[in-house]
Design a protein that fits this description.
Length: 664
């Protein structure tokens, strides 16, 4: 601490006043009780804290003036009560933590001095994972009660367990910190993990601090401060319907906040269509963003006025900062690079750069709304399907992991006639044991339209169970050709799979002998090395034209199983990354944009096997198939009619009559 500047006379005066107040409050042993909170070094450390704004340095008179223009109108002439950053520093030191970083102090300052735009203060604090935004806000709750014990605080989280942990943390600090111990609940007051009163609080039906889950019914509560701590989670915001339900739940906050109150949301966006964007656009909330890295020029333009002033000030002060850590003492550049590799570019942009700009949505070329979804049979398919969009075509029973407004639709029309699939193929994307999946995708083609009949994934690489299940599916769907990508094990997967497929076919043929005209006795297994091209570009080049032409139909069961499998995976943080729907809608042209891409790569691989058959016009192909079907029916009819008509002359006469008559 020796390198800290000597406190100014003004700071010394404020600190002297602080000591006098604590001496009266703590009594005879005030020095011992306060020793953990205020030492000689602490006194010096408070000097730079009291003299910063964002850290844009402002005179103390101006700082106090700005305080009186906000919701904290009372001036105590006590640095702990007048400046939240001072209280935060004391609390951090009580917890044996390093002093708050400039970024943390800026968040603290903004909570206290955010300029209100109306009678109620609506604020969204977006800070990257690990920025300690929940701890800072917990300290803000305690500081609010220290200033006015009659205040009422509601803490709502995505889960009740998290909000209860938040409240318990506050209650424990009240019991431990000498400057807060006068707030301890009295024996006749509420004191539980879900709700408690502070000692000086007057009797009231509403507790001083109350914890709930965001979807819980809040009856009879009226609050001065409402904290929404990570109300948006990966679990409750995965689909558009979930996000709509969540938005309805947080709407209740405006009904229970008192005039002059403050609503603060703390959050890390879980999707590009984050609920926080909805709150900003539709309900007047103000978003401030503290990213993990200093943004470059393009990112700054994307953030706009959302970017925290301190971050902007630092960039103006040092133009070499873009791309470096905003918290170098806690998260080094190397550490952030490792996190980016783990999360993928899209996940890192959300979780650490807080980038939810709608312009980024345009980076993703594939939309679920461009494909059709319906129940499909393993043997036959409709001769013609027509794409359409609109709410009347949306499949309400299929939950989609996608952007808002991007839903799966049934075809606008389906022909009454059905034909056998022209070709059924499968593509396998193998993987070793670990986090990546081995995926199987089965696609059929009929009249220049591709139909995805089945997709499945396994996490045990080339395990015996996986090989057997893949072989059984190839036989069940009567797959003609199965292509295995050769990147894994130099073709070993195909060699391991061959005997299982042969055995599955033999068992099937014993039970269900095939038609004499069907010469196939097994699925052909072929291997192919992936093209030496960036994977993301290769997938997009394959799927984008097919999506744009609306030539892909996905079996309804594929999406239902995709969602159910995603929901059943262990953990909640990254499980949606395994979803086909997620991978389709988040695939971009940037390298390594997805944490997992096995399923969308499998779909692209299977579609690439039938691309040559997708070049013809579906309507013409369907009409041709109908003509061939009529010819076959007529041929069969005339063959039976020969016996009655007496041969060719009678058959020609009947043919003219059945086709609408001949020449007179």
């Amino acid at each position: 601490m020796s390198d800290l500047p000597e406190p100014s006379p003004e700071v010394k005066k404020a600190l002297k006043k602080f000591v006098q107040v604590q001496k009266r409050k703590l009594g005879k042993d005030w020095k011992e009780k306060l020793s953990a909170e205020l030492t000689e070094e602490t006194t010096k450390a408070l000097a730079p804290i009291l003299n910063i704004k964002d850290p844009l340095k402002e005179p103390r008179k101006e700082r106090l003036k700005s305080t009186t223009t906000h919701h904290n109108v009372e001036i105590f002439n006590d640095p702990v009560k007048d400046d939240f950053r001072v209280f935060l520093t004391i609390l951090w030191r009580h917890l044996k933590l390093p002093d708050p970083t400039p970024l943390q102090l800026d968040i603290a300052y903004y909570m206290q001095h955010h300029p209100r735009s109306g009678e109620i203060d609506h604020l969204i604090i977006m800070a990257f994972r690990g920025a300690a935004k929940s701890w800072i806000t917990g300290a803000y709750v305690l500081w609010t009660l220290l200033r006015d014990p009659q205040k009422k605080v509601l803490v709502a989280s995505g889960s009740a367990r998290r909000s209860v942990a938040f409240v318990n943390w506050c209650l424990n600090l009240i019991a431990e910190m000498p400057i807060l111990q006068h707030l301890r609940p009295k024996p006749n007051q509420r004191q539980s993990s879900q709700a408690f009163d502070v000692g000086p609080a007057r009797p009231d039906q509403t507790p001083s601090v109350f914890a709930v889950g965001v979807t819980a019914q809040i009856v009879g509560f009226r609050g001065d401060l409402i904290v929404g701590d990570d109300v948006e989670t990966n679990t409750n915001s995965m689909t558009p319907d979930m996000r709509e339900k969540l938005a309805d739940s947080v709407r209740e906050f405006d009904a229970i906040i008192k005039p002059g109150g403050q609503i603060i949301f703390l959050g890390t966006p879980q999707t590009e269509a984050s609920i926080y964007n909805v709150l900003e656009k539709e309900r007047g909330y103000v978003i401030k963003i503290w990213p993990a890295r200093y943004p470059n020029g393009k990112q700054r333009r994307s953030y706009g006025s959302r970017l925290a002033r301190w971050v902007s000030w630092m960039l103006e002060k040092d133009p070499t900062l873009p791309g470096t850590s905003t918290e170098p003492t806690r998260f080094s550049d190397e550490d952030l690079r490792a996190r980016e590799m783990s999360w993928g570019k899209a996940g890192f942009a959300l979780q650490f750069m807080l980038d939810t700009s709608l312009s980024d949505v345009e980076r993703y070329p594939l939309r679920l709304g461009d494909i059709m979804c319906m129940s499909l049979d393993r043997r036959t398919g409709p001769d013609l399907v027509s794409w359409g969009s609109g709410d009347h075509l949306a499949l309400k029973d299929v939950q989609t992991i996608s952007f808002d407004g991007d839903r799966v639709h049934r075809p606008a029309s389906v022909s009454d006639s059905f034909s056998k699939w022209e070709q059924i193929v499968a593509f396998i994307d193998p993987s070793g044991k670990g986090k990546d999946e081995t995926t199987l995708t089965i696609v059929a083609v009929l009249h220049s339209t591709a139909y995805c009949l089945k997709q499945a994934g396994w996490l045990d690489g080339h395990g015996e169970k996986t090989l057997k299940e893949i072989a059984n599916l190839l036989v069940q769907f009567n797959v003609m050709t199965c292509r295995v990508e050769e990147d894994f094990g130099q073709g070993m997967f195909a060699q391991l799979l061959q005997p299982h497929v042969k055995k599955a076919w033999e068992e099937t043929l014993k039970q269900q002998p095939r038609h004499p005209e069907d010469k196939r006795k097994a699925t052909e297994i072929v291997t192919e090395r992936a093209k030496k091209q960036q994977k993301e570009l290769r997938i997009i080049q394959t799927l984008e034209p097919v999506f744009a032409a609306h030539r892909l139909v996905v079996a309804k069961e594929v999406f239902l199983e995709d969602y159910a499998t995603t929901q059943s995976r262990d953990g909640t943080e990254l499980r949606d990354r395994y979803s086909l729907m997620y991978q389709i809608t988040r695939l971009a042209r940037e390298k390594d944009c997805l944490t997992h891409d096995d399923r969308v790569e499998g779909l692209a691989g299977a579609v690439s096997m039938v691309l040559e058959r997708l070049g013809l016009m579906p309507a013409e192909q369907a009409e041709k198939a109908e003509e061939e079907r009529r010819e076959k029916e007529l041929a069969k009819f005339f063959k039976d009619a020969d016996e009655v008509t007496g041969g060719g002359a009678g058959r020609r006469a009947l043919r003219r009559g059945l086709r609408g008559g001949g020449r007179r």
